[in-house]
Batch of 2 targets.
Target 1
Amino acid sequence: MIDAFSLHNKKILVTGASSGIGKIIAEKLSEKGATLTITGRNELRLRTTLENFNGESHQSLIADLTNSTELLSLAEKTDRLDGVVFCAGIVQYMPVKHLNLSSLDEIFDVNFKSQIALYQQLHSKKKISQHASLVFISSISAVSAVPATLAYATSKAAINSAVRVLASELSKLGVRVNSISPGLIETPLLENTFLNKEVFEKNAVKYPLGPGKCEDVANAVIFLLSDASRWITGTDLIVDGGYMLRQ
Amino acid sequence: MKLEEFVNSFADQFELTEKDEISAQTEFKMLDEWDSMIGLSVIGMVFNTYKVKISGEDINNAVTIVDLFELVQSKSEIE
């Protein structure tokens, strides 16, 4: 029987794979049979991720996607892809009145512009197969209006909008484009932020199904990359344990 | 870097608390209006004004405004 959820023989690129959600997603994709190219900024962490993979023939390519030369090199070295998971992201909590415009630029560069730039390079170098699936990791922050999250929230809202436009542009190639909006998930992204502990304790009660794990997001990614979702494009899949029900 | 200026900038982060309620020796986390948003505002003020990065833990460890002033002062001398 053909498993529509299998990723066997699919070549998938995962950005932001050296830590957090990206790392767990990459590991789960390897378990489902995907052949992976992972990229991130930290060589050592990227290598550790690679060691945890099932199977052979995966590769890691170090790249800072905000650096156009490194981005170009990544796109050149990548095989032709059946899927891309755009995971790279940074967060900063700051009330708007103190939001430094250069840090706003930095967050947009990493969370939004570099992801779009990567897509552009992959497409122009013919690295995206027909019927490929592009999955962007967004966030419920884009719409949940949590104080002190303007930079992160707007960068993710930009992703949501880009997904719909891209889905529209790429439909004639059979390429599907979707996003996933996770709720708050404990990852290194949240370490070293003032709100970490407080947000977690306060927010835990807001999730009807309890707190989420990276694996919950990874499973949604598997679905959107697999043929099981072949008729789904331009959507945002909320993976939040019911958080948005209470908004 | 002057203590008086620092206390004044610190007090500016509060929207509802009168400035005369805040002095160098104030145990700021005891103020009614204190919350994590004001904590973040203090981090932002310190970075934008003094070009020094302080963490949430630094704020958690400080009791009075002088404690934070001294921390920021030592960090700005190092950097």
Target 2
Amino acid sequence: MRLTCTVNGSPQQVDDVWEGESLLYVLRERMGLPGSKNACEQGECGSCTVYLDGTPVCSCLVAAGQAEGREIGTVEGMATEESLHPVQQAFLDAGAVQCGFCTPGLLVATDDLVTRSLAAGAPPEDAEIREALAGNLCRCTGYEKILDAVKLAAQRMAAR
Amino acid sequence: MTELLEPRAIGRDTVRRDGEAKVRGTATYAIETPVQHPAYVHPVQATVPLGRITGIDTSAAEAIEGVVAVLTHENAERLASTDDREFAVLQSDEVAFRGQVVAVVVAETSELARQGADAVEVTYAEQPHDSALRVDHPDLYKPEKINPSFETDTAEGDVAAAMATAHVTVEETYSTAMYHNNPLEMHATTALWDPSAEVPLTLWDSTQGVHPDRAAVCEVFGLEQEQVRVICPFVGGGFGSKGTPHAHVFLATMAARAVPGRPVKLGLTRQQMFSLVGYRTPTIQRMQLAADRTGRLQAIAIDVVEQTSRIKEFAEQTGVPTRMMYASPNRRTTHRLAALDVPVPSWMRAPGECPGMFGPEVAMDELAERLGIDPVELRIRNEPERDPETGKPWSSRNLVQCLREGAERFGWADRPPAGHREGAWLVGTGVASSVYPTMRQATSTARIRYEDGRYVAEIGAADLGTGAWTVLPQIAADALDVDEGDVEVRIGDTRYPIASVAGGSSGTNTWGSALTVAAREFRTKFGRSPADGDEVSGDVDQASKDDAHAAYAFGAQFVEVRVNVDTGELRVPRLYGVFGAGRIINPRTARSQLLGGMTMGLSMALHENSVWDTRLGQVANHDLAEYHVTVNADVGDMQAHWLDEHDPYVNVMGSKGIGEIGITGTAAAVVNAVHRATGIRIRDLPVTLDKVLTALP
Amino acid sequence: MKPFAFARPADAAEAVATVATEPRAVFLAGGTNLVDHLKLGVARPDLVVDVRRLTSREITDTADGGLRIGAAVTNSELAADRRVRERYPVLAQALLAGATGQLRNLATTGGNPLQRTRCVYFQDVSTPCNKREPGSGCSAVGGYTRYHAILGTSAALPDPTAPETCIATHPSDMAVALAVLDAQVQVLGPAGARTIPFAELHRLPGDDPSRDTVLEHGELITAIDLPPLPAGARSAYRKVRDRASYAFALVSVAAVVADGEVRLALGGVAHKPWRASRAEEALRGGPVADDAVRHAMDVELTTAQPQPGVDGGNGFKIPLVTRTVVATVRDLTQETQA
């Protein structure tokens, strides 16, 4: 099929896509966007988290045939050339990045959590953060610095 | 004694240098290497645990349009060396464990490679296999050495006599489960064999050491070092499983050599990693402790039973920490292995110390309980003045300070009584000690060059998320006496000088030592105003190695556990660690390393368990849905602290290594807290709710 | 992955007709389970039919005071719906106890109850499994049984070679809540529309473990109806698992406590969401103190068959499920009294 969708705000067309491929595969192998990671390919680790029509999903479980006409946001779309997104900056500042493999998925999931929480009127509580990010496995940091980073990001995004 | 580097950049909490690329998603991992027109490789795995291949039909796979090649033991190239049977891929019809690779399919896309792998028909003559570890296995044997080169058994005095006469004894058996490293980045290799190139073989491999990786590939394929380049700027975690190459590296190389001029990519699946990239052996630890009425140990002994594979020996040094941890006149440690029809075990974070600080640290708690002595105090009373094993003085040993500071921070003195209940939760607290040896490898070389007004240091080291990209410039800056910003360090490529593996918490100690030697040479040779292109190399200075002291990092971990009175669900709202780990090069990266280790220890305590199906000869729960690692929601208030420790004997930085100590002792502290909460002593990991149900009201 | 064709029909009727005419066709909605199974080789269809946009994504009030949930409503949307949270807390809690945000954003109302077992042998195509490959045997019996059934297991136990043998559990949390709520399933099939009581949607393994539900080939869930709960009823879902989050249930309990009535459905114990009707009967009209609930669960579990296994087996589920039910009912009762 010819897959037509919007990725990080730009319209994209890719030919010769098989509908049975995963969206993650299309992003990484066909669109040159390897930022979203493959660490289990069965929805058990969160490393491949991307926005799909505005909600975060595991892109490894989205069939390419179902991505037709939809809006996709990946880690590559978060920063500008000049400056990082506040969530990215917070992860750096808090020391929440180690090997970096869970990071792209966590950044998308965190952005969603913080944005939703602030829209609802308050930054997320610790327990809420820990539950909301339970689907993003990290094997290096032990999550403590990730928690710090989310709170820092929420603080900065609230101030904007 | 070494004069330590004057810390200016060292000790600063600089932001991770590789961090921006990682948060932008532009850091390139092995499978993502941008190469032209790659082919993809997918392995076919044996479905019997032991036997011979009687037939292998590749015709259906080869008939698939887009399948480029199918390699089996019948057509694969003969390797130059088959001494290491884990590395000797596709060389014979023998199947030594279920999941062993029996063929690979090379195809135009990864989907086609998988489809091709599905289409390869293999028939086997299956033989009865033995994959069940048990303490009375009839074939237990004494390995010549244990990992990496320790004595298998040690003994001093008469443990049996002490056990017979002591005021109090503990004699119990503890066991740890089989664990899989499961770094988030799945093992992967991109390989290019271009016979016409100056360097014909290039591997982009996810590895903890590009140089050891290259050495192994050269050995197996009969290549010279100059013919091979290994590149690895970023590693998505390793925890030991990428500390040595595994079968897939050789398979990728072989596949590349089958399609000269064309790059190939081999990425293992998560499921494949459960049989192909190592794991930590399950251990059975029989402990004996004897003490007088004041709690002074009269005897300490550990007899370890664990497994290895039939084709390659890996002897986990589980009994080693018992040799040096506490003072006791009578001591014994033994290791016995069962060689089974199982995948090859290998390194996993703190090999030896991690499982080996479980049995002893729970036994110490049991001893404290029987004596009616506080478990912190019991450990303090058994503090040895010198290393009990070697008689050497300690380079520095601050276990007692770690215990005291941890107790203070945790509020240990005011801890609730045993069986304390708050609402629906039973609350318990526990403590255990941590330890990890301070190591420095014999070989590493750094090259420093003055280039465009900056100092460029090159060393073929690895950063698997540990922080090498960040801390090595800090060390080099202090060694050169310049601003950190004036230093660039390049790692992760065999084009840079040889460096040791990132393992044994020795990376910073070793590479930093080489950098310091090179920096001093540089200053001696070129002074403070070098010319562009001035360059020197420096090796780890063996003469400065201190053999007169026993060098270890120590720590203490304190944990609060809550057990639900209705369901037995376990929660760990608090886990505090205090460590004496020498000088901390970068607090930001160090804290993350220590917390990460503690979390993996918590994961080992509560969750991780590769359930071995003895009937099939494989791990039953071989994916991340069923092999549970701790998730964010399992973690509560977790803190890592360290003492301001000054150790002039370990190396010029005064650093001890922090990658592994965090995982040691944690599981014991959890078990001890669960006992305090419920009265149940769980001696086999993991601690799951079904094991505490019978103790609930 | 085995190649397959992909169809994107224009409406539900066309989707049903497309699947009905192709014996090896399957519906694809959220994909959280099927896409995984396609990769693992557990599902090997010739045709995949995308129905994600073809059913309603609305939650509407029904005339009897209940709710109709369109099959395309995602688990996240359903859990966040104010009416669901207020009137059916058991359902909202069950949804939020399942999987993760990323998966709940994909998973649908129609698809979630149709997810397949997480039995590790079902998911491993190198091992025999009667559910995946009828007649091949059951690898789970005597294997890793921690997440396996103790109730309603097949009569052929413990023979692993019998074609009936299966000790798989149904993994959905949402389905346990729907079972206790007496939901009704709206189905469109080649023969037209029909309504199936949720309690009858899922099957026990019986003589054909490969079939999870009573749906015929080509039948598509279009909506699920929730009848109103009795006035003053309280409901809750409690899931007991090996991690604090993101793990399948060892056991779970969906409970409704109303005047003179206790309704119970159990997860993690059977091939289907297990409505504990014997226990409900034992409690009908009587007191719901701990002892009474415990006794009722003893009655419920008289036929339980704990499974031995390589990791200690799953006999712990018997006390565990009882304790969990007792605690859940106790909490609801105290809540009612308060």
